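Thread: Newbie trying to understand structure tokens

Hi all, I'm a second-year student working on a class project, and my supervisor (Dr. K.) asked me to get a predicted structure for one chain before our next meeting. I've only ever worked with sequences, so writing a 3D structure as a token string is new to me. If someone could post the tokens and maybe explain what I'm looking at, I'd be very grateful. Here's the chain:
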Amino acid sequence: MKTTYYPEDNILEIHLNEKAVVREISHGWNVSISYAGDGSICEIVILEAQEKGLYPMFTERQAA
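---
Reply by user tm_fold:
Sure, no problem. This is what the structure looks like when written as tokens:
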């Protein structure tokens, strides 16, 4: 997984894998989800990420 934030445009991209994108669906005006041929999610793009409280992100790690 890789996240990229573009501060000049306030866009957050969350890359989940490197599979080829075959379909992209908008969920509201500011969230777009890209899917691979097998139905798995490849990427999530969020516009106005700071205003929505999604960037900076808080990461919590727990021991198994």
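A couple of things are worth pointing out once you decode it. Residues 5 and 12 are 5 Å apart (CA to CA). Residues 2-47 form one domain. Feel free to ask follow-ups in this thread.
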